[in-house]
Amino acid sequence: MSLIRIVNVVDPKADAARLRGSMSDALSSLILKVKPIMDDVAHRGDSAIAVYTEKFEGVRLDSFKVTDYEIEQAYRAVTKSQIQAISLIKQRLAATELALLRQLKRIPPVRADGIFIWRTAQPVSSAGCYIPGGKARYPSTAIMCAIPAKIAGVKRIVATSPPRQDGTIDPLTLVAADICGVDEFYKIGGAQAIAALMFGTATIAPVSKIVGPGGMFVTAAKILASSRVSTDMVAGPTELVIYADANANPTLVALDLISQAEHSNDTVCGLVTTSEKLAVQVSNEIDSITKSVSRTDIVRASLRENGFIAICDNEKSSLEFVNEFAPEHLQVVSKRARAIAKKVTSAGLVLLGEFSASSASDYCLGSNHVLPTLGFGKSRASLSVLDFLKVVTVAKASRQGLRKVEPAIKEIAYAEGLLNHYEAIRKRFS
Fold first, then answer.
1. What local confidence, expressed as pLDDT, does residue 133 receive?
2. Which runs of consecutive H residues, i.e. helices, occur in 129-236?
3. Tell me, what's the pLDDT at 150?
4. Which residue in 292, 249, 297, 289 sits closest to 271, CA to CA?
């Protein structure tokens, strides 16, 4: 029996929604479990965090804040080539974010009939970056979260990440955070970290915005936190959908699915194709390759529980499936990749061609790997400098300008029954 299930798509939208639905249902139930933890942190602060850190991470900590000495020790524990890699990833991402920021600064003012409107991009005052830990380490996520904030001009950048069994943070993650300008780093993970960033404690001051990916518990916590503090997006367990035609290399397709499946058991990785031959080839490759890959238990569990190969009748049906599923990463492997990509309306990140592997985008293409999951690719895309800016509108009207629009103000104010709105205008000319 094949490790990954093969689905013959009959109704693209319904079948995509069905594959997506189980993860959304799981998130709803987790929200109920997470809320008491966050409420406890709100009431008991640091003492509640200490309890949950020991309970969930198996670590008893006297202090959550990473010290300058720990950062110095982290630099001694990493290699020169690792620092060079971090610096290159930072450089490429910064170039992408700076290009976007420059465009925002070119927003032209609008002048019409004595009314002047202009917009200024202002950074949020503080940002909290959640960096996953657990079964893997993610120095790359420290870069992806901190650099857009730094480019935007955020004055206080905070990072949190689950501690390791010895009570420390992975050295390369600390180094990456330091290189990218993180001001404070705390050894806290899970829902308790999101609650700390949201409510604040005696140790941690609250932040204006929380960003970063995480597992389902963290995602549930961020959804709850969004009622009180701004958050970036639903960025839960990794998702990859590959759209591939009959000419795609089945080995490379299988390897790309495996590369994302190794994140955790709850990642969602799938192939969408019109080729039954490719579907069978990729399935066979997955069965063969996963027998000997690293992190094989995680990879196999992920693909077995959440993976899929969807066979569609034609390109139109395939695109309907993809746009309904709205994956975090979408790879398009086809000779017609650019033409197909123009028809994609729902994806966090679109990668074109066999050399644009999703695992490369996780690191060093210059794109950001903090991306929307659970179908939120329908309404937003990757984390960027935009997430750390407020575009504030400033308006100025002259006497003549206000007189020009007075009749329209009167008309709508009376229609809405808000007569004092118009009276405030009328008196200026009486």
1. 86
2. 139-152, 171-179, 190-199, 216-225
3. 98
4. 249
pLDDT of residue 198: 97
Number of neighbours of residue 104 by Cβ within 10 angstroms: 15
Q: How far apart are CA 213 and CA 193, in angstroms?
A: 13
* Residues in CB range of 41: below 8 A, 6 or more apart: 48, 49, 52, 192, 195, 196, 199, 201
Single out the catalytic residue among 320, 329, 354, 369: 329
Examine domains 5-24+237-369 and 45-231 and report if their fold is the same: yes
**Active-site annotation holder among 328, 369, 411, 416:** 328
Chain centre distance of CA 368 = 8
Residue 329: active-site member: yes
**Token duo for residue 53:** 């850190």
| Main-chain dihedrals φ then ψ at residue 191, nearest 5 degrees | -60, -30
Residue 92: the pLDDT is 98
**Cβ pair 215, 136 in contact under 8 A:** no
User: Which helix (DSSP H) or strand (DSSP E) does residue 269 occupy?
Assistant: strand 268-273
| Residue 369 annotated to the active site | no
Distance of CA 93 to CAs 96, 140, 231, 363, Å? Answer: 5, 11, 21, 9
Contact 235, 370 (CB under 8 A): yes
The domain segmentation of the chain, as residue ranges, is 5-24+237-369, 45-231, 398-429
Assign domain 45-231 one CATH number from 3.40.50.1980, 3.10.28.10, 3.30.450.20, 3.90.76.10. Answer: 3.40.50.1980
* pLDDT given at position 24: 65
Cβ 123 vs Cβ 389: under 8 Å: yes
Note the pTM of the prediction, 2 decimals. Answer: 0.93
Residues of the chain with pLDDT under 50: none
386: CB partners within 8 A, 6+ apart: 100, 104
The CATH superfamily holding the domain 5-24+237-369 is Nitrogenase molybdenum iron protein domain (3.40.50.1980)
Strands 115-123 and 110-112: antiparallel
